Amino acid sequence: MKKVIVTGGAGFIGSHTVVELVNAGYEPIILDNFSNSDERIIKQLEQLLDQEIEVHNIDCTKEQQLARFFLLEGNIHGIIHFAAHKAVGESVKDPLKYYRNNLISLMNLIKLMKESEVKNLVFSSSCTVYGEPDTTVVTEKSPRKEAASPYGNTKRISEDIIIDSSIAGDLSAAVLRYFNPIGAHPSGLIGELPLGVPNNLVPYLTQVAAGQRECLTIFGDDYDTPDGTCIRDYIHVVDLAKAHVNALQWLEKNPGACDTFNIGTGNGHSVLELVNSFEKVNDISLNRTIGEKRPGDVSAIYADSEKAEQILNWQAELSMADALKDAWTWQTYLKNNW
Ligand code: UD1
After folding, report:
1. In terms of residue numbers, what domain contains 247?
2. What is the DSSP secondary-structure string of 80-147?
């Protein structure tokens, strides 16, 4: 079986990708330092998959730890690199934490990939690289704008590091620009586990629905959109996870390739639409209020995912309603079992 290293494999998108790798016949090996994830997710994964998963507690910024792992493991087919800090607000307050962690881990990996002749890299980038876009629908050719946060800047710089390394012949890479990942595995056994107060809409909303938080504040209702609230492209995390498998298969067929792909549904939904849909599919009434705009939020952005469809043979299959149902199943599981 082909061994695929999943850094940050205990995290939200990483854990769902581990499931899809197993489903596709790969052998995922998780590297995680559990700085923003919970070790119990591994047990959940093993229950879901009915098999053991190899896990190493490794911090990718520690080059020696990583080098030892590469040496002992051998025969690595590819790497899917998720391990990174991702809180936009925290990155503004502590930029060095973000530059150090997100960039050094990537550079360590690329150096060791080169030394060990591991060719395939799938990297998690973000639609944040488009900044405040000129058009609501963005293609991969849309210009990257100045980053609105150090977090966003680490994604932009990471993309450049990967492209330059591929030009130097060090690796083949698929850079995936995620739109807004939401939802959870339909089994209800894995999902998002935010530490502290969630920054993102769906985990905050499910905690309000569960009675853990009082009220959802919708950040602004006077944007230049049909209902005045921001528009995003919400993608089910299982669809997103599958895109990584397709990207890996594309790299296998195209040695030396390096390309960037939007991973979204191609549909925009407003915050109000999402909240109303959550209430409807789960038959729950949410306590909510309209608040101030959140600084740095763009009014509307969604993906043109045509390129991923054409080249990676990937397309989102699940709806926003599916994702909101699965997110609530997970939140309910947490409430009863965690
Ligand atoms: C952010 C990041 C993105 C990252 C994504 C997932 C930026 C600009 N965006 O996206 O890079 O991939 O998180 O981690 O860096 N909202 C509310 N109330 C809340 C929370 C959010 O109304 O309590 C609204 C926001 O104003 C926004 C929408 O919900 O319009 C989605 O917000 P969020 O889930 O935080 O994601 P983004 O900011 O789009």
Report:
1. 3-182+235-264
2. EE------HHHHHH-HHHHIIIIIHHHHHHHHHHHHHT--EEEEEEEGGGG-S-SSSEE-TTSPPPPP
